[in-house]
Amino acid sequence: MGKYKIKRGHKPDLDRAMKEAFKSYEKKDGRYFGKHAILEVEAWLVGKELEVKVSSKKASSDRELNESIKAYNSFLGLATGLTAKERRKKSLKR
Q1: Which residue from 48, 43, 5, 6 is spatially nearest to 25, judged by alpha carbons?
Q2: Out of 7, 30, 67, 78, which could bridge 17 as a Cys pair, Cβ 3.0 to 4.6 Å?
Q3: Smallest Cα–Cα separation from 12: which of 32, 28, 39, 40?
Q4: Helix axes 84-93, 62-80, angle to 10 degrees
Q5: Which residues contact 74 (CB under 8 A, 6 or more apart)?
Q6: Does residue 94 carry a pLDDT above 70?
Q7: Burial of 11 (0-12, 13-18, 19+ CB in 10 A)
Q8: CATH number of the domain at 2-93, please?
Q9: Span between the terminal Cα atoms of the chain, in Å
């Protein structure tokens, strides 16, 4: 499970982030469940942090793997308001 801080002033819209990043998603009890190729993502907000649980299947091709990684990074960017570089920097400070 991963925890990601949300950028100051950013108002996370998990509906929009899931819709734009994943092929399909659903919302149940305040948690969002998204699927894209080999990934299954469960995400929810706890205070000022985004918590994410990810599971994956074995990729049948490099293309499938790359698309899944791009979708996940896109989701995190939309949900947290931070780029991959900013998320990495914040994770190293913990």
Answers
A1: 43
A2: 78
A3: 32
A4: 70
A5: 20, 21
A6: no
A7: exposed
A8: 3.30.310.190
A9: 15
Taking only the tens place, the pLDDT of each residue in 42-75 is 999 999 899 999 999 998 899 999 999 999 999 9
Structure tokens at 66: 């790359």
Residue 6: DSSP 8-state? P
> Is the pLDDT assigned to residue 14 strictly greater than 90?
yes
Long-range CB contacts for residues 13-22, cutoff 8 Å, separation at least 24: 13/78, 13/79, 14/43, 14/44, 14/45, 14/79, 16/78, 17/75, 17/78, 17/79, 18/43, 18/75, 20/74, 20/75, 20/78, 21/71, 21/72, 21/74, 21/75, 21/78, 22/71, 22/75
- What are the residue boundaries of the structural domains of the chain, listed by start? 2-93
